């Protein structure tokens, strides 16, 4: 495992840079696993997990340590020779599985959370502190969950937002509960309060960051405007993506802004993504009952916003990437009070459905879609829910259809083609 590297000045326009970290020492010989970076006195300091396989079983035959690499130009990194955390702490902490450090500074002290599990395989997060990023002191098992918490918590992130401290993590082994937790592994957050003296984090229950298929290991940053911006891995462990035979399958999501909303977070697309728009098409006050299509509302790489009144509808469907028997279907059903994303006929490889409960205040629903070849990112009701999926239809499957049981009225329909995010503007 390597650290790829892209750079942006605005989180909209990006430039590829050379690989930042690659296995090169005896402590990271089999992978520079996940971690984070922080700016200190004009230098970029990356903290990451060095991984070594000690045998054929990747669950039991491994050694993990936490390492530091520094860069004065943000591109070329020099690794510290010795790990800064050599081994997992004593106690009910699995000696092999502790990884993915996320670092932040609070009142002049550095802290990091690490993903972990107990010796009998229950997920948990560890908290460390340091004055210099080199000498770390274990504080506590900061967070864990007794019931249905999974066997391992990966890729933790920690920050303060609104009235809450927020812990984001990707728990493995969580069992389904109703419509929730149907992916192989999850991406969730909990709200609470961190005691910086004891290191313990009193928190609520898991809440999902994404109700779709392909969203894992998200990490956040605070931008210059003070917004908390999140990007996730748009894939899922063990999913059979058709592009694997070409040597790749993963992708990253668009940047998403997290907003506090009482005892939950809203997740919205970064507003500046509007800079990528071109060739706008718009319709207003269009009734939908039987199947309807609209001129120029189609494509494979686009942004689309749909505001629909469902007062007289029992169901409303948006079907995209349609053609040659293929389609991906986004459906709201009044009886269920829920939206379902169905990719059983979306094309090659992956399949299945996911469902999330949503509210229809004043009989209105909003859907904000970003489609890009094999990806679909769908924001519902201004961030009340998000559904992410990888799909693999044929390249000619580019139609979009609307349909209702009863009558729905699309009060506003907007669609834009999109410029490439990897363009000269932005970057270094």
Automatic annotation (TrEMBL):
GO molecular function per UniProt: beta-fructofuranosidase activity
Keyword Lipid biosynthesis belongs to the record: no
Biological pathway: Glycan biosynthesis; sucrose metabolism
Pfam families according to UniProt: Glyco_hydro_32C (PF08244), Glyco_hydro_32N (PF00251)
Keywords: Carbohydrate metabolism, Cytoplasm, Glycosidase, Hydrolase
Enzyme Commission number(s) from the entry: 3.2.1.26
The Glycosyl hydrolase family 32 N-terminal domain, residue ranges: 1-269
Keyword Hydrolase in record: yes
GO CC annotation terms, alphabetical: cytoplasm
Primary site of residence: cytoplasm
Intracellular or extracellular location(s): Cytoplasm
GO process annotations (BP): sucrose metabolic process
SMART domains, per the entry: Glyco_32 (SM00640)
Domain Glycosyl hydrolase family 32 C-terminal: 272-417
InterPro entries linked: ConA-like_dom_sf, GH32_Enzymes, Glyco_hydro_32, Glyco_hydro_32_C, Glyco_hydro_32_N, Glyco_hydro_beta-prop_sf, Suc6P_hydrolase
Catalytic reaction annotation: Hydrolysis of terminal non-reducing beta-D-fructofuranoside residues in beta-D-fructofuranosides
Family the UniProt entry places it in: Belongs to the glycosyl hydrolase 32 family.
UniProt function note: Enables the bacterium to metabolize sucrose as a sole carbon source.
Protein name from the UniProt record: Sucrose-6-phosphate hydrolase
